[in-house]
Amino acid sequence: MKLTLSASIGLTVFVMLLIVALLAPWIAPYDPSAINLPQRLAPVSLDHWLGTDHLGRDVFSRLVMASTLSLGAAFATLVLMLVIGVGLGGLAGYAGGRTEQVIMRTCDVFMTFPTVVLALFMVAILGTGLTNVIIAIAITHWAWYARLTRSLVLSIRHSDYLKAAKLSGVPVWVRFHRHIMPTVLVQLLVLASLDIGHVMLHVSGLSFLGLGVQSPTPEWGVMINDARQFIWSSPLLVIWPGLAILLSVLSFNLMGDALRDKLDPNLEHEG
Amino acid sequence: MTDNAFLQLKHVGKTYGGSSFWQFKAGKQVLSDINLSICSQQSIALVGASGSGKSTLCRLMLGLEPASHGEIYHNGKAFRDFARDDWQAYRRDVQLVFQDSIAAVNPRQRIQQVLCEPLQYLRGLSASQCVREAARLLDKVELPASSLEKKAGQLSGGQLQRICIARALAAKPKLIALDESLSGLDVLLQQQIIALLQDIQQQDGTSMLLVTHDLRLVDKLCQQVVVLDDGQLVEQRPAKSSELWSSKMGRELSEAILPARPPIRNPLEQSYVTETEECEALV
Amino acid sequence: MRLELHNLNVCTHTGEALVKNLSLTVESGSVLALVGGSGSGKSLTCSALFDVLPRNLMYSCERKLNGENITGQALRGRHMASIMQNPSSAFNPVQTMMHHCQETLSAVGIKDQSVIAQAMLDAGLDDWKTVLALYPFQMSGGMLQRMMLALALMSQAPILIADEPTTDLDLVVQRHILNRLKKVIKKRQLALMIVTHDFAVVAQLADRVTIMHRGEIVENTSVEQLFVQPQHSVSQQLLTAHLALYPEETHD
């Protein structure tokens, strides 16, 4: 499979991040919550590859442990958004009529919620925590996927080959998952891979604001928030988690682009 | 015509648009008061100009869309009263070949899967039986068995047209509808497909419902002609009749047929064309 | 007015030849029909004339207008106008016909608006004032094709290239359009090259016929000669298939 340079870079970084996230407990040299005050704010050294934070905890270990949470939360949010969005959007597109109208108007309502405001609202009611952040982001973003799924389903629903399948006696659900879903899912996959960076930024952003994960749990957004007060004295403390977020989002975007380039022209050729 | 004719249409009408949940407006009436009886032994042509409603009528008869008024009966039972099993039985009796063969096949599917769908769902064959039967169907439409493994996107328009006919044959129907399937084909392919359809008519006793605007095709395949004009049935007559058309649309359609040969020209009026073109070797 | 195309060769990137060494001539007041089955390369020839082949194809040819070399780009619009196969996709769905007319006129640099009315009348659109205000979705296939003819006429181009202009239309409309084309060519002394696979159209409209098969010209003759005595086996095959549609022919 020939890959462009950007696609290769994206894929490599993504795979590395995945390995780090999955094997975090074994990669981290120190306990991320081990407080070591005499060593606080230590610079980069052979002992502490990225230095220590204001409580003497090893930044590298915290970064590595945080990757599990950050990446995991981003993926969990994406999965939740897709499940709700594709399910409702597919139903709207296929059923048509009043069902479609009701679902689409619901989408309109949910699209008007600003993410941060809704997250604040949920935190006020349910308390802080990563789960609530995930739910908040999913609730404000599923509507985009629902709309896209619906329009994709609509475009296929009127095609002749679907009518031909109906005439061949193929039952409704089989028609849906054999003829409609493959094309829809491919397009959605491309969009999702481009969107995951965006979701990741939301997760980290909300944690940065103090709405999600709370200190001392390591999470990139939280780490940036903690390091804010030391930005002039030890700027690296802010830069390391920021770089981690940057690398992740960049690799997702590059991969998303590559996926789209690979899949879309194929769709054109097959049509 | 008896009440238990194979397919019977009574006062069938179709209106598109019209009021919905959000708005109140007048709809567009595409078909009005169609009364027609079709026997399973006779092939029938449905002719009319574009916009006359013939394709809509074809779709209604196939059950792809519900009629707005009136009712369609299959062997005496109304579509409205059909349960799922009735629809399965109906699909075994009546099949359709679409106009655009490229759009009528899922480009991601292999031909084997395309043909196995009706074999599995309408005739209840097992997987291995499907494979054998699919090969037999391909043979019948004069395509090589190697096409089974190909994806629909890899075949040409003419080959896909044959695949669509094979798919329609899979259910062993009594009636095959062809919705302008012969329009837009180049003249050689059209000749081949017509010959294939004539073969099927003779060997399997399958009748055809040919929807077309080209009267030249009618007596090749059909015994009866029904003329539609602006959504209404205006004339019905035998296909090979030498009588004049009684309806305006019938007359228009027969006058629209261009003569087979060029008109005799007055040599003085002939345009002067020089012969400087290169000619390939004339065999 | 005489357009010559010499030695057209079209091939794919892999070197597969799609059109081989093709030459043809189109002259004022006469109609050349380019005929062939699917895949014979006739549409490619048209696109090559206009220099609008897809990027993945390579080609070379010589175009001469009245004996002088000219590029495809220079021919477009000013000297050569086109009528395409699918009228419903040839128009911008969000613009009225008037808009399309003005776009065409400004592209060839004609300021005189009166050509619009004359072109539309010549194309058979008698109520041209109403039509100018319409959007494509409000017009039928036949009307759109007539509009395409009108746009081609108002550009005042002396050469018309029609690529299967009636294939998607029903026979009634087809007859009207062909009659219109015939009248217009005689009246304005245009040169017409019509690409088609329908021999009935060829019989009615063409003066000369060029038959293509697999990218090559296999026969090039006058239309009367073709129907009386086709020389090449491909021509004979196509002609037989065409005549088989007509009942009275089978008695021959």
List key phrases describing it.
A: 271 residues; mainly alpha; 0% strand; elongated; disordered C terminus; C: 252 residues; alpha/beta; six-stranded mixed β-sheet; four-stranded antiparallel β-sheet; 10 helices
Rounded to an integer, what's the Rg of chain C over CA atoms? 18 Å
What's the shape of chain C?
globular
What proportion of the residues of chain B is helical, as a percent range? 25-40%
Return the structural class of chain B. alpha/beta
Run of helices and strands of chain C: EEEHEEHEHHHHEHEHEEHH
Report the biggest beta sheet of chain C as strand number plus sense, adding barrel if it closes. Answer: 6 strands, mixed
Overall number of strands of chain C:
10
User: Which CATH C-level class of the largest domain in chain C is it?
Assistant: Alpha Beta
| End-to-end distance of chain B | 57 Å
CATH topology of chain B: Rossmann fold
Could you explain the architecture of this structure?
The complex is a heterotrimer of chains A (271), B (283) and C (252). Chain A has 271 residues and is mostly helical. Chain A has one domain: Orthogonal Bundle (MetI-like fold), CATH 1.10.3720. Chain A is 75% helix and 0% strand. The longest helix of chain A is centred in the N-terminal third of the chain and has 37 residues. The relative contact order of chain A is 0.15. Chain B is of the alpha/beta class. Chain B has one domain: Rossmann fold (3-Layer(aba) Sandwich). Chain B has eight helices and ten strands. The longest helix of chain B has 18 residues. Chain B starts with 6 loop residues before the first strand and ends in a 27-residue tail after the last helix. In chain C, helix 4 crosses helix 6 and helix 6 packs parallel to helix 7. In chain C, 48% of the residues are buried. In chain C, the strands form two sheets. In chain C, strands 6-7-8-3-9-10 form a six-stranded mixed sheet, with helices on both faces. A four-stranded antiparallel sheet of chain C has the order 2-1-4-5, with helices on one face. Chain C folds into two domains: 172 residues, Rossmann fold, CATH 3.40.50.300; 69 residues, no CATH class. Chain C is globular, with a radius of gyration of 18 Å. At the B-C interface, helix 6 and helix 8 of B face strand 2, helix 7, helix 8, strand 10 and helix 9 of C.
